[in-house]
Amino acid sequence: MKFSLTTKAIAFSIALGTLPAMAIGVSNYISASNNYRQNAIQSQESLTFSLADKVGRFMFERTGDIRVISRLPILNNPEATKDITQQQRQNVLDGFMRIYGVYDSIAVMDLSGKVILRTTGETSTNLADRDYFKEVMRTKQPAIVQPRKTSTGEVAIHLAAPIINANTGKMIGVVRTRMPIKSLDSILNEKIFNASQQAQQAGSSSKEYHLVSSDDKFFAAREAEQVGHDAKADFASFVKMHAEKKIATAIDIDRFDKTEQLVSYAPVPNMEGMPELDWSVILAEDTKSVFAGQQQLITNLLLGTGITLLVAGGLAVLFASRTAKMIQQIANAVASSSTEIGATVEQQERTTTEQASSVNQTTVTVEELGAASRQSAEQAEASAAGARQALELADNGSKAVHQTMAEMSTVRDKVGAIAEQIMRLSEQTTQIGSISDLVADVANQTNMLALNAAVEAARAGEHGKGFGVVAGEIRKLADQSKKSAEKINALVNDIQASINGTVMATDEGTKSVDYGLRLAQGTVESFTGVADAVNHVFLNSQQISLSAKQQAVSVQQVVSAMNEINLGAKDTAAGINQVRVSTQQLNQVAQQLQAIV
After folding, report:
1. Per DSSP, what are the bridge partners of residue 159?
2. C-beta separation of 235 from 254 below 8 A
């Protein structure tokens, strides 16, 4: 891909303005990012150490509490306080627990582990099997055992100390305090909250604390679900940091939350005069939260680079555009002139070409016109001959139609005669029907007479038998006559129907003959018109033939003139083509100049 001079100038100016700024920005980002990261690590390590120190001092104070309680006169000087009742002694312990506010139980045992004094709410009667009792009996020193869950399910820390008789110096019992772990939770949460406020962080801190006992288990944590978890299982880096027993930080994966976190470790310090704790503090926070400021640095870098790019780009476009504009104007002027010249030449060339083409087409058309004229003359002569033949045929057709009309008149007369005969036949058929009806009546009367004669013969007896036989035969003949008359009537009806149909057909035939006569008369008139038209065509064809011959001579003269014009047009086209080639070369030079700009 080729770029214009303007584009190259703009790109160079932008690069010259932005690359140094980007290099400085990247360098500053790397430096600031490293400083921010180091500060975040140092800040978290400082807070982790502060939490561990806070826990150590808090437990040191609780050790002091147990020492103070063990030295109460009601405990270490029985002789001097023998007049104090058991209830009064309990009230003293209740008041002590209420003043300190971190304990939920205080118990006093004799050397056998039997509880001899306890605060209100404590129900234990013998604590000889407890680890803190055994530890104090063994060392004769205050003891702090590992935190564990109580019968109520709450994690608590147990502290115990020997009770030394103030008079004899002998150990006479053991006192134990129980402190719920929530006291430590509230202290640590408050410490983290104050630290986040000092760091001017909005909202609650996302830092998670974990207190680890000597058996590497969490006994206190911001997320209560993690209490009892193995620190080594949750944080792989714990093993190395715990082995070194010093403040350390690493990026690790919290297997409980499945998140990447910045993990800081600090051992809880042991103050002089307090039992060995072997506790440690782990402070963890999601890396997204810890290093959120780095994202802001990137945003600032991109924003600064973008502003620089816009400013540099604007200036580059401004100056490069001015320079390129001048060159562009010159190139445009040259290109415009060459384009206009080229367009004019091309237009003239097209005009000349079209003129030559038109001359050629005109020549061809004129030649075709000449051929058509000659053909028209020939066709006109042929038309005249055809017209003569058509005129003869029209005369013959007219004669044939007149003859047809005469014959159709004869047919009409014959059809009329047939119609009269059919009418007479119809009348005769009607007479036959009347006679047949009369015969039927006579047969009926004869039948009645024969029947009467048979009755009379029966009355006459033997003398009338012959007459009865004759009467029976007459009756049979009468029946046959009646049947014959009925058949004749049926035939007469059929004949009458046929006659009626024939009459109708005859009427239709008469009408058809009349219609044919009218058509024939129209045909005669048409033949007369055709004959007149054909005669007129014959006269016109002769005139067309003469005109076509004269036109053919004129067309030949036009063809000669067009050939001369065609030669001149070809010479003009050759000259214009040379001008066009020169103009194209000038236009190419102008386009190259525009492309460079």
Report:
1. 144, 177
2. yes
- The H or E element spanning position 289 is helix 287-290
Cβ proximity of 66 and 161 under 8 Å: yes
pLDDT in tens, 220-251: 998 888 999 999 999 999 999 999 999 999 99
One-letter amino acid identity for 504?
Answer: M
CATH domain 348-453+482-594 topology: Helix Hairpins (1.10.287)
What dotted CATH number matches 6-290?
Answer: 3.30.450.20
Taken as a whole, the chain contains a residue count of 597
pLDDT > 70 in the chain, percent: 80
| DSSP-assigned letter for residue 93 | H
Q: Specify burial of residue 192 (Cβ count, 10 A radius: 0-12, 13-18, 19+).
A: buried
**Whole-angstrom Cα distance, residue 254 to residue 476?**
141
How far CA 427 is from CA of 357, 423, 500, in Å, comes to 94, 6, 11
Torsion angle (degrees, nearest 10) of CA 242, 246, 248, 252:
10
Instruction: Report the half-sphere exposure of 253 (CA within 13 A, side-chain side).
Output: 2
Cβ–Cβ < 8 Å for 572, 353? no
pTM for the predicted model, two decimal places: 0.49
Strands (DSSP E) along 88-207, which ranges?
105-109, 115-118, 143-144, 148-149, 155-164, 171-180
Place of tokens 């023998």: 82
- The residue extents of the domains of the chain are 6-290, 348-453+482-594
- Mean pLDDT for 7-12 is 72
- Rounded CA-CA distance 597/587 in Å is 16
Looking at 212-267, list the stretches that DSSP marks H as alpha helix, in order from N- to C-terminal side: 231-234, 238-244
